[in-house]
């Protein structure tokens, strides 16, 4: 485990929106830990440090709470939809050696054949992995793929110890030739010489 995921948290006994606002104003984030049949534990996390950690997905925190150390997987992060400030975090207690199911980002590498376009249909795959060895992403190479090529979830090379939970037939990326947009046709009569009717004879 990396040292930058070691976090000292504080227990809290107060709840409600007003208390949560005061906590955030003090530079902390309210959170709750649950799992393994234990009672939910309400804590506060250091705001700046936690926000830096959460720049990467599926993070496992090494928590120290009242002198007791434990591991917790970040399960859900609630943010203000406008300000994007972290309002609350849900954590799940985990143990070394335990496996968890997590959504992992799919990263495309390389370029498909000239004149083709690769369309990514699935941004993530669901994997079962060891809780303390969650990959940040999995990589799919599209280098040189020709028109009609399809990469499915089962084709992804997984990290050691990982198991694919997503249906193996799920399409991750497909390669096609972009359709050419039809050339603009001139409007009826456009570009043609305008005919001028002769003026009627004066009586």
UniProtKB/TrEMBL annotation:
Coiled-coil intervals: none
Subunit structure: Part of the 50S ribosomal subunit; part of the 5S rRNA/L5/L18/L25 subcomplex. Contacts the 5S rRNA. Binds to the 5S rRNA independently of L5 and L18.
GO molecular function: 5S rRNA binding; structural constituent of ribosome
Domain annotation Large ribosomal subunit protein bL25 L25: ranges: 8-91
Region of interest (Disordered), ranges: 176-203
CDD domains per record: Ribosomal_L25_TL5_CTC
Protein name in the entry: Large ribosomal subunit protein bL25
HAMAP family: Ribosomal_bL25_CTC
Any single GO CC term annotated in Swiss-Prot or TrEMBL for this entry: cytosolic large ribosomal subunit
Pfam families, per the entry: Ribosomal_L25p (PF01386), Ribosomal_TL5_C (PF14693)
Family per record: Belongs to the bacterial ribosomal protein bL25 family. CTC subfamily.
Annotated ranges, domain Large ribosomal subunit protein bL25 beta: 99-178
Keywords linked to the UniProt accession: Ribonucleoprotein, Ribosomal protein, RNA-binding, rRNA-binding
Stated role: This is one of the proteins that binds to the 5S RNA in the ribosome where it forms part of the central protuberance.
Biased composition (Acidic residues): 178-188
GO biological process: translation
InterPro entries associated with the record: Rbsml_bL25/Gln-tRNA_synth_N, Ribosomal_bL25/Gln-tRNA_synth, Ribosomal_bL25_b-dom, Ribosomal_bL25_C, Ribosomal_bL25_long, Ribosomal_L25_dom, Ribosomal_uL5_bac-type
